[in-house]
Amino acid sequence: MAAKYFTVTWDQLHRDARALAWRLLERGPFTGVVAITRGGLIPAAVIARELECRVVETISIVTYDEEERGAPKVVKTPVAAGDGKGWLVIDDLVDTGTTLRVVRALLPGAHVATVYAKPAGKPLVDTFITEVSQETWILFPWDTEPQFIAPIARL
Ligand SMILES: O=P(O)(O)OC[C@H]1O[C@H](OP(=O)(O)OP(=O)(O)O)[C@H](O)[C@@H]1O
Ligand SMILES: O=c1[nH]c(=O)c2nc[nH]c2[nH]1
Ligand SMILES: [Mg+2]
């Protein structure tokens, strides 16, 4: 269990992904976007829309089983992105940097961006929007659902 949780709603994710697109505008234009699946798919769709980029590729690295980290496994490589030069790589977050280390080795020329970043992974990212502490677990809207909670007075 993480020490703290940072809950992200669909609205907030959309707003933060658009803020990232604003920041990336001056770093482009890009030949295409590579989404790191699965977490990078939604921010990549928002950013590709804002940057008017129609070419979207995917790379799939499996590193976590829920909050448990394992050895990173590449289960899909991008077909069209070459060494990444001129391409924009998007992920939802960087935590330890394990996933991005693998991605950077495969696409050394790419510009790498995430919406959220934790301190240990920050050096692996070229552009990000919001930093949270290393002990915080980010809860994304696709992993959560609203539920009843007890009144504060009863906790
Ligand atoms: O910096 P790291 O310590 O490598 O952690 C960050 C990665 O972990 C999560 O992906 P996950 O492996 O859970 O797969 P998913 O995107 O398919 O959920 C997240 O989406 C990042 O890709
Ligand atoms: O949903 C997630 N939240 C996180 O904080 C995290 N770190 C690695 N992988 C993660 N997945
Ligand atoms: Mg991921």
From TrEMBL:
It is found in: Cell membrane. Its main location: membrane. Gene3D superfamilies: 3.40.50.2020. One of its GO terms (cellular component) is plasma membrane. GO terms for biological process: GMP salvage; purine ribonucleoside salvage; XMP salvage. One of its GO terms (molecular function) is xanthine phosphoribosyltransferase activity. Its EC number is 2.4.2.22. It is an enzyme of class 2 (transferase). GMP binds at residues 95-99, 137-138. NCBIfam families: PRK09177.1 (NF006613). Belongs to the purine/pyrimidine phosphoribosyltransferase family. XGPT subfamily. This is Xanthine-guanine phosphoribosyltransferase. The gene is gpt.
